[in-house]
Amino acid sequence: REYYPTIGLHGLNQNVTFNFGQKPFKFQINQYIMKEKKDSLRSILQQEIGYYDLHQLVHSYLTFNGYSKTLEAFESASQIEREKAFLAPKRMEVEDDFIITNKDKIQEEFKEA
């Protein structure tokens, strides 16, 4: 979809002045963008993240990306009760561990099929 600049005049004797960069613009778009970015970042940083939520986030990231050894080290170092972080019991992860370990092989087989 293409957009084109347009103007509307609603009466007689109305004037329009175009500025193609010869003079400073009245609306400072770069300052506006920086302010929006700062406001967004400030809002994000003010959010409270619980210990268990953070643990769950890191656990999910490591599992999804197949970092099984890092996940093991993370689990060992955190010494957190899995139920408190709403994680599956360890015995249920055997299938997930197989998928993580063989992720590249599985992806190749899907590509070939």
Give me the count of strands. Answer: 0
Helix share bin: 40-55%
- Give a short account of the largest sheet: none
Average pLDDT over all residues: 79
Low-confidence stretches: none
Question: Can you tell me about this structure?
Answer:
This protein has 113 residues and is mainly α. It has 5 helices and no strands.
Question: What's this, in brief?
Answer:
Helix content is 53%, strand content 0%. It has 113 residues and is an all-alpha fold.
Main attributes of the structure:
single chain; 113 residues
Question: How do the helices and strands line up, and which of them pair or pack?
Answer:
Layout: H1 29-45, H2 51-64, H3 68-78, H4 94-101, H5 103-112
Helix pairs in contact: 2-3
